[in-house]
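Hi V.,

Quick status before I head out on leave. The structure for the redesign project is tokenized and pasted below; the design run finished overnight.
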């Protein structure tokens, strides 16, 4: 019989007995491949090439709002139009061909023009820097405690100045928790049963918790934050508390905690 998970209300204090033990138990139980079908990260496992994977990851992360089935359906439809080789397609297609590949795309309030701008901006980045990983590595300073500067730079570089696509890649400069970009970084930098990795030049110790309303509710329940809104300040606060518990990998427990809550454990 499985052991039940009990979390101290003072989880924010790393000295509290049993905190890390309970988190590790949660990780051991839920950070497993059989739970991949509850998360859009599953789509990244279709790509062995790191360059193709990072493009697929950016696409999936940028539309990671709503139901998982809907996110997967939208991402798969677009990747099919990109011939399941998004990097190669972007680097070898004309603007007209790229626009045609985006025609008919619809994921809730994201239509073909917005996804075209996202991909067009990504192509410009690739032409200038080679890969998204290279750009992030250049943007992240060796003294930076988190990837905040790199996330801000990536959002600015891809979204640029056109209005209407900032919701796909929001920036922490405007206070957003940037849940989807933090999720993208987690997918690409960590490597375990859930996160496939691919960016070998970057380490997980500077990752920031992908904070949405659901994760915010969990963190408030665990005493990791007293803030009301799932904004950038809350994301940094929560990340700091997890870093005190697991300095080398502060987002280690992200997937497991959300699955525990999803499947009815007392988190």
């Amino acid at each position: 019989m499985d052991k039940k998970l009990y979390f101290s209300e003072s989880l924010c204090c790393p000295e509290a007995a049993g905190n890390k033990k309970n988190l590790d138990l949660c990780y051991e139980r839920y950070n497993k491949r059989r739970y991949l079908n509850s998360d859009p990260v599953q789509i990244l496992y279709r790509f062995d090439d790191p360059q193709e994977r990072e493009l697929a990851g950016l696409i999936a992360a940028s539309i990671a709002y709503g139901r998982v089935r809907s996110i997967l359906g939208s991402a798969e439809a677009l990747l099919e139009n990109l011939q399941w080789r998004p990097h190669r397609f972007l680097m070898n297609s004309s603007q007209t061909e790229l626009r045609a590949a985006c025609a008919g795309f619809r994921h809730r309030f994201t239509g073909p023009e917005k996804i075209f701008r996202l991909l067009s901006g990504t192509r410009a980045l690739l032409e200038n820097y080679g890969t998204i990983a290279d750009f992030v590595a250049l943007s992240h300073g060796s003294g930076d405690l988190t990837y905040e500067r790199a996330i801000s730079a990536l959002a600015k570089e891809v979204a640029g100045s056109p209005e209407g696509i900032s919701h796909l890649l929001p920036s922490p400069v405007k206070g957003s928790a940037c849940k989807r970009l933090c999720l993208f970084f987690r997918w690409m930098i960590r490597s375990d049963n859930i996160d496939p990795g691919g960016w070998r030049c970057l380490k997980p110790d500077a990752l920031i918790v992908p904070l949405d309303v659901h994760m915010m509710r969990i963190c408030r329940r665990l005493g990791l934050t007293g803030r009301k809104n799932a904004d950038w300040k809350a994301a940094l606060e929560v990340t700091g508390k997890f870093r005190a518990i697991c300095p080398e990998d502060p987002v280690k427990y992200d997937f497991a905690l959300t699955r525990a809550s999803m499947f009815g454990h007392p988190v």
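Above is the designed sequence. The longest helix spans residues 112-129.

G. will cover questions while I'm gone.

Best,
W.
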